[in-house]
Amino acid sequence: MSAQPINPSRRRFLGSVGRAAAGTAAVGLLGAPAILRADTPKARVVVVGGGYGGAIAAKYLTMADPDLRVTLIERNPVYVSCPLSNEVLSGERDIDSLTFDYRGLTRRGIAVMGDEIIEIDPEQRFVRGKGGARYNYDKLILSPGVAFDFGAIDGMSAELADSSIPHAWKAGPQTLLLRKQLEAMPDGGVCAIVAPPNPFRCPPGPYERAAQIALYFSHHKPKSKVMIYDAKDAFSKQGLFQAGWKEHYGDMVEWVSAAAGGAIEAIDPDSMTLTGVVEDFQADVINLIPHQRAAQIAVDNGLVDDSGWCPVDQQTFASTLQPDIHVIGDAAIAGAMPKSGYSANSQGKVCAMAVAAAINGESPPAPSYVNTCYSILAPDHGISVAGVYELKDGEIVSVPGAGGLSAPDADARTRAIEVQFALDWYRNITADMFT
Prior knowledge:
With 435 residues, the chain is an alpha/beta fold. The chain has 12 helices and 25 strands. GO terms for molecular function: flavin adenine dinucleotide binding; oxidoreductase activity.
């Protein structure tokens, strides 16, 4: 269908939604019956993945065009948020405060199906679930997240991650396992965090985690230490993190760069030993965050390139490798945007508007992309990095002079306000996703 001009009223709606960030209230139930908005839908859109990208894409599709039949497929009955999950390790929050169901989306007429997609047929345009169910689509949006490359570090495996060396980079049972290990660790022990190479989900996450574990130690195990062994020589918000660690925890947190021998090559879980490029390190608790790539469903269905990630048209997030499939969130190659929850949220909205426009024979609206990432180092100490992005020559680039880091010399009141901003951001974005 050839592109047609957007009528004025529709242009205003698409533009306003494309610029929206996050805001409203959360909750939902997987598999609840949906009220379809048209007996004969204009088009069928299937969204795979019910997290920060997929849930928002499904919601905004229904807002863009109530005559679409939108199906969200998610294998888990509830969603557990990775943002703020580090606070479970310090004891500042519990896992229930991170857990959401899908009833809010079903109330919007979205069919939420509990299934795991194992096959995509781009020629006949259907996906197949693990139990054999077939879901036909006219457009498919994938928000599949990341897969973990356990083989990059000798001796590591998915089985070890579930049993004794948790990565907790998907919030849930491993988060609770890591918390229990910290509780059982002797005072004076060492918790080792192994940080992966770029790119990976939530670039500031390992360093916020170090602060939250140190917060727990400062109250309960003050002789203990957090060691970060890194595959990189620099990391997101580095100066702000290092100053905050020092201010609140003294020498309790120590970072070892790749150049200083922090790149880990192997693990012996029996002796709790990490093998670095120069020397070995021992620890009482090991939090090994694996190397990452696009989720396996993207790999299996020809959506990744040699980088291990999914190339897309960065205006619409349409795959450049498969027709009528869009990829958003951590799995996508999205120019200057980091792999974060807020990036996925922004991409989900842009993608939803582009898909709705294409179905209606219209050109996609001009995209607008944003990202803000807060990190909480102590109950009254928050820091952030923000970015505003635009499309330039087909690539997402940072808008010069927009966004930036928290001021390095901010006073205590400003740091405390940033914590409140972080908590408000979380409430707003999860409300936007699940209501």
